[in-house]
Amino acid sequence: MSSLVEFQIPSAFTANELLNHPDWIIDLTAEEIAEIDIALREHLGSNVEYQDITKSKFPLPCFSTKLSYVLDVIENGIGAVILRGLPVEKYEPMELKKLFWGISLHLGTAVEQSSGGELINEIKNMGLKIGDPKSRYINSRGAAALHTDGCDLVMMLSIAEAESGGESELASSVGVHNEMLKHYPDLLEVLYEPFYYKLPNWYQGTENYYPLPIFANCQGYFVCTYIRYLIEDAQNYTNAPRLTEKQRQALDKLDEIYNSPQFKLSFRLKPGDMLLMNNLLVVHGRKDYTDGVATKRHLMRVWVSHPKSRPLPPEYSIPYTNTAPGSVRVGSLFVKW
Q1: What class is the 15-326 domain?
Q2: Alpha-carbon gap, residue 124 to 121, rounded angstroms
Q3: Where are the domains positioned within the chain?
């Protein structure tokens, strides 16, 4: 495919380059923390549900400037940032939910994470194993393979760490793409072609699957969506097109490079860390973990559409609904229900 190009952009990082990048970890200042606390106090003890809090009712005049910078880094810079230092230990669970929601309002619009309509998901072990029909990796303690979510911006707040394990994992889709272009261009070409993803059972359509390329070049913007288990799940339908040997080779090589020490960064999120990732530029996952009696891994997650987002190819209209840059788009087809 003669149109294959190397994307020479800041988000084409290796693990070491991300680890040493000045924008990777940004500390909150005492003034910003105080501003967040003041904005929250209006809603402490109130009967207002977190989702009813609006941006105007959660003013962050100084911190919002930093959030605007972070959004530029997410979209046009390295594509992933940790905001560090929020004192989560001083807040009750509902206060944290309101606080997290209030901050997200200054980044964009939260979108539903499944057909259940959750706007904030709690990521913690609920005793379910991956493979259980009721389980998603967010409520089990199992490992999660590197993947993308169904949104422009993934935002997570770390509340507590596991006793052992549970390291977050992240890799640059852009960097891996460029590595494949250099060494495996024939397999990279395959990844620009449609793969068939399973549609969730609740989706009302004529088929049980839909086509989507893993990599795309949309008006010069890099785009990646990769959830291998949904590709494999589509193979359970006899009428779905079969994965070819070349496609399996391409997926296996993609996984191999994503998980190589050169590209995959493993790290622990400290309590009070907020991890923000451009879902179209990076993949993320986590290692399995064990909770203790007093220490149990707990995060909150929001999916955000933001006004600085990139355009998407026309075929992305099935899972995302809207492909125009800066539009509100919902990717809840990327979960099983």
Answers
A1: alpha beta
A2: 9
A3: 15-326
